[in-house]
Amino acid sequence: MNRKKLITIGIFAIILLIILIILKIVFSQEEQDISNNYYAQEEQTTIQEYIPTPITEMEIQSPEIEELIEKQWYTNQVSFGTEESIYEDYVIYFEEGIEVKTIERKVFNLIFTENYTQNVINEIKVGQSFDTIIDILGEPTFGTKEDGLIGYLGKEIYIFFSENEISIYPVVEPEEDMTEFFALVNQYNEDRNSWNFGNGLTELWKDYDKYAYNQDYADIIYSLKGLRVQFNYTVRNGITLYRNYKGEILEGITLQDLVENPEQKPDYIYLELSKDLVHETEIIRYQEHKFLKNPNTQEGKDEVNPNNSTDSFLLIVTPTEEGYTNLRILSKTGEYPRVELKNVNLFHSYMWFDDTHLLYSIKQKGIYLYDCITRQTHIIQEGNEDFTLQKVENHVLTYDNKTIEIIL
Questions:
Q1: How far is CA 76 from CA 68, 81, 134, 157, in A?
Q2: Is residue 314 part of a domain?
Q3: Residue 31 falls within a domain, yes or no?
Q4: How much is the pTM?
Q5: Domain that residue 204 falls in
Q6: 203 with 222, same domain?
Q7: Co-location of 105 and 144 in the same domain
Q8: At 31, is the pLDDT very low, low, confident or very high (cuts 50, 70, 90)?
Q9: Could you give the C-alpha distances from 98 to 92, 103, 112, 152, 162, in angstroms and in order?
């Protein structure tokens, strides 16, 4: 092939590449326009249909809720009983039937389980039928019986009912001084610097319940405030406000103002007025709880170990390239509290020693035995070895082709 023909082919290839790049840009812009138009139409619909969430009258009877309200929801101001374990940010008071998630020293979510025997509100206890609850409180504000989860908004609490739990969230009032928030929003309006905005917001309001954030993307959720911030996470770049958002959007502009004058809405603020962010958060929690009751062999990034589980306990871990993290143990019968081993950041291998004892190893550190009933950890061996667990037979553990006898 001569030089002239090679040059011609090269020029043609470059032209074709330029055309493909232009087409990609055009189609990407069209897709973005379609998405923006969809969300704009959706927002217009939600604005037109926006009605404040009705308040259900309820008589609070739980002494824990009464005291929390009196103490402005500060966790350390109320005694819940004896702390048994911690599982995914919830402190579990197993015998008392209470589970508590705290954010910034205040209760974010309070769960009453079957072990809680007192009335929570209006003579309603954990485990009562949906029909009984609806007879007392009226048609649910959130969810349906078919969903397996129903809820109501009171003056001071959100309350959600499922088959064997009652879930409580506090109702929070808007921030008294929004000056710094408005300054952050105005600054973002000028420079569109999402990194500075996210840093400033989380420094100003530390009570976020989700924080996924780096220089490339952000997803920050304030469920109780009804506000979510997303950058390079979905097609929405900016602030999404939900039905339960109570503060001003910009100085002097509220959600009600946007209902009356939608054109006042800045283009980086999105509305989800058909959804309450507390309810959305409770749906996720409820679905995760259902998973705990009936775990699959695979759940997202987690690895459930049913084949190697015991008659009494089930293990859930998160595999990584270096080993495993998030070691969690569940009682199949519910006789014992579920637990997450917070002191184990990364472990190398694991196996069941017997029905109630789990062996796990940490590279260059040691082998450990965890008692699922007493929730105590025992050191089996320490050193600088790999500690790869291989098998257990007749109380003899084989690891790294070595053996050690374990006597309980």
A1: 10, 12, 34, 19
A2: yes
A3: yes
A4: 0.84
A5: 179-279
A6: yes
A7: yes
A8: very low
A9: 6, 17, 5, 20, 15
